[in-house]
């Protein structure tokens, strides 16, 4: 868990500044100017936007670069258990989460530079990213967009080595618009004139067209999934293909067929950014890649011990209909290989389409236990969430906690060892990892 120094700094920020997002680049630009523009002193940047798959692409990109012996900084958001997870600093043998002393000092310096002016905490912590990454040597920096793209606080990097747009679908409609083409236009805001662009697998042709048109208008070298590169399964392996030829690779360690496309986008992005990735490095990356809280198997821990004997437990923070579809598909793949009754333990927040998420599991899940999301003020009450699951065609009942849901299932289920998905919110995923005693490291 977070030690006191950084904890105190962030608590002070939370008390002083408004929560949430305020989409503009004026405040972050003013603050970075006072810090002597650290965002202009970064190693080559891989900048990643999208509705789903951003974190997986970042994880694959990091694994690829580190397997090729490059030193890599990584910024992701949100964190699951500990604020330090957002900042991974390059090190020999693989990056390390930022040390508390270094983190607290950077927060304090950025806060002093801001001089108490109006700003959001996310903007301050994004400035911390740039400060830390500019002060520690690395060969590359992977930076994940927080929300949207065009006005996200990370979008002050003038010339990224590559801009990556992962799958675009409806989410954060209050900020980004209620049509997929509007959301795609916001994500496309990270594309910079003349800089390479990688477009990951898109379900929406409308979104894809917006992204391609933006890249063409800005005269960017553009690499599109399904046109310029792709990945497919063959004989239990992953085959990656682009203009340079084929790579026959192990299947990604991250489960789900959607991870083939995410891995392919990362390979294309790293190559477009100018890095040499050998076949051997790509093999190593597929085997070693890790991304906590996204289809993460819970094989041990305090919560896992409460489940029915032999249960197959998965944790996933996906929280919108698009994420529901890919997670359901991943579980359906497992059902084909190893049939088990599926139960959901779900908690969600009120800014998400709860019924849309649950609909993806209509013909797959046997029952849903709905639980509160205690780490967010926006958590949907568990009884109300049960109604949303029922509206989506599932049977559901509210339960007071994940632990109680696992024990209830253990005490009432007398069939074969079940498969359990705990998910619906990154807040819930973080709480589960903390309670289970298995936080990200």
Q: Which residue ranges are poorly predicted, with pLDDT under 50 across at least 5 consecutive positions?
A: none
- Taking strands numbered 1, 2, ... along the chain, how are they ordered across the largest sheet? 4-3-2-5-1-6-7-8
The proportion of residues in beta strands is 15-25%
Q: What's the β-strand tally?
A: 17
The whole-number mean of residue pLDDT values reads 93
Structural class: alpha/beta
Give the helix tally. Answer: 15
Rg measurement, Å: 21 Å
State the distance separating the first and last CA atoms: 10 Å
Form type = globular
Largest pleated sheet? 8 strands, mixed
Q: What share of the residues lie within helices?
A: 25-40%
Family: Belongs to the folylpolyglutamate synthase family.
EC number: 6.3.2.-
Enzyme class: ligase
GO molecular function: ligase activity
Summarize the structure in words.
There is one protein chain. The chain is an alpha/beta fold. The chain is built from 15 helices and 17 strands. It has helices at residues 4-16, 26-34, 54-67, 100-114, 121-135, 173-176, 180-187, 205-217, 258-272, 279-288, 321-337, 354-359, 382-391, 402-412, 426-436, and strands at 45-49, 72-75, 87-89, 96-97, 140-144, 162-165, 197-199, 222-224, 229-234, 237-242, 245-249, 296-297, 312-316, 342-346, 365-370, 396-398, 419-423. The mean pLDDT is 93.
